[in-house]
Specification:
This protein has seven helices and five strands, in the order ββαβαααααββα. The chain is α+β, with helices and mostly antiparallel strands. It has a single domain, classed as Glutaredoxin (3-Layer(aba) Sandwich). The protein is globular and about 45 Å long.
Length: 167
């Protein structure tokens, strides 16, 4: 899977036929990814249908040991049709232990027992692994990294800079 290719399971905001696609590779324990969330939401709003945002998992396992599990839980939430609201909760959370992941799921109105079973069975591990592999092929240096037109960008991610990146 390359950056230009999207798969049916990609989590996106914005129209599929938008002239610009911005792919974010992120990690749920990364404070910079958490900080980028509001900027990205504003960017999508300002683009008014001319941009599509795609989120892909890039857990930095060596420094963020809970990020991969959180990514799998996000995929489980996505299987229940609630990826983006749960994604926001994960990025805002201080605790990403299994107990916290399930508490956040319940708070979001998700079936936490189903998520627990999917985590236990590794039901979404392959999706997270595929996202990470796609990021390695770029190669990524850190999170968040944004990709537009096949080019990775890991510099400033303020609204003005990202607007210029997608222009």
């Amino acid at each position: 899977m390359t950056v230009a290719e999207t798969r049916g399971g990609d989590h996106t905001v914005g129209p599929a036929d938008a002239p610009v696609t911005l792919v974010e590779y992120g990690d749920y324990q990364c404070p910079y990814c958490a900080g980028a969330r509001t900027v990205l939401e504003e960017l999508v709003e300002q683009a008014a249908g001319k941009m599509r945002l795609v989120f892909r998992h890039y857990p930095l396992d060596s420094v963020h040991p809970l990020a991969r599990r959180a990514a799998e839980a996000a995929e489980a939430a996505g299987a229940q049709g609630r990826f983006w609201p749960y994604h926001r909760r994960l990025l805002a959370a201080d605790d990403l232990s299994d107990e916290a992941l399930l508490a956040l799921a319940r708070a979001e109105g998700l079936d936490a027992d189903r998520i627990a079973n999917e985590l236990r069975e590794g039901g979404h591990a392959e999706t997270v692994r595929a996202d990470k592999q796609a990021g390695r092929e770029l190669p990524l240096k850190r999170t968040p990294t944004f990709v537009s037109r096949g080019e990775p960008w890991d510099g400033f991610y303020d609204l003005e800079t990202l607007s210029e990146l997608i222009a």
